[in-house]
Design brief:
Helix content: 40-55%
CATH superfamily: HUPs
Mean pLDDT: 92
Strand order of the largest sheet: 3-2-1-4-5-6
Shape: globular
Structural class: alpha/beta
CATH topology: Rossmann fold
Order of helices and strands: EHEHEHHEHHEHEHH
Low-confidence stretches: none
Distance between the termini: 43 Å
Strand content: 15-25%
Radius of gyration: 17 Å
Length: about 210
């Protein structure tokens, strides 16, 4: 079995995330299982302003809604339940113990691939997992190739996967929600309904 890990803050999860997983499933890597892993706290974002952010349970539920229709996908609450900063090496070790016969893929975006050599226990990460780097444009693919070579020089395996262009971030989506702008073209309709029903990201409304 091949198990892929796709982690992140998902605050909120958007169609760019969903498209990345779709492209991974359809790629030559063809994982048998994709584990969506919302972080309790991203180590690179620890200490940042938490105002106007969704809590762990809401981010978990939004991921379930966004990925429930995709085959071979499961949303895990492992990192959230740990209630500590989420280091990818620790999560991969946990998955190794859970699925000792599996091969592993770590799915990352271009920014994450660029910084991967600086991550906590990065050598262990690239020893455990084949890196799937998601590219959203031909221009980004060219830039990612340079990052990929840096990881390969450390002994890692990297495959670049092209997906549909998506030019908006979770941060920008949160700003649109605060300003009562339509987000339906960026976020799964069930996630939009969840956000609106619970007034998530609406300052002072919760």
């Amino acid at each position: 079995m091949i198990t892929a890990l796709f982690g992140g803050s998902f605050d909120p999860v958007h169609l760019g995330h969903v498209n990345a997983v779709k492209s991974l499933l359809e790629s030559s890597l063809a994982p048998d299982r994709v584990i969506i892993m919302p972080a309790f706290v991203n180590p690179f974002k620890a200490g940042l302003d938490t105002e106007n952010r969704a809590d762990c349970e809401d981010r978990l539920q939004m991921c379930i809604l966004a990925f429930e229709k995709l085959p071979r996908c499961v949303v895990s609450d492992y990192e959230i339940k740990k209630k500590t900063p989420s280091y990818t090496a620790d999560t991969l070790e946990y998955l190794q113990k859970l699925y000792p016969e599996d091969k592993f893929i770590l799915t990352v975006g271009s920014d994450s691939l660029a910084t991967l050599p600086t991550w906590n226990r990065s050598g262990e990460i690239i020893a455990i997992a084949h890196i799937a780097a998601v590219s959203r444009s031909p221009e980004e693919s060219h830039r990612i190739e340079g990052y990929a070579e840096n990881v390969r020089a450390l002994g890692g395996k990297v495959t670049i996967i092209e997906t549909e262009p998506f030019e908006i971030s979770s941060t920008e989506i949160r700003k649109k929600i605060v300003n009562s702008k339509d987000i339906s073209c960026y976020v799964d309709k069930n996630v939009v309904q969840y956000i609106m029903s619970k007034s998530i990201y609406k300052q002072g409304d919760r």
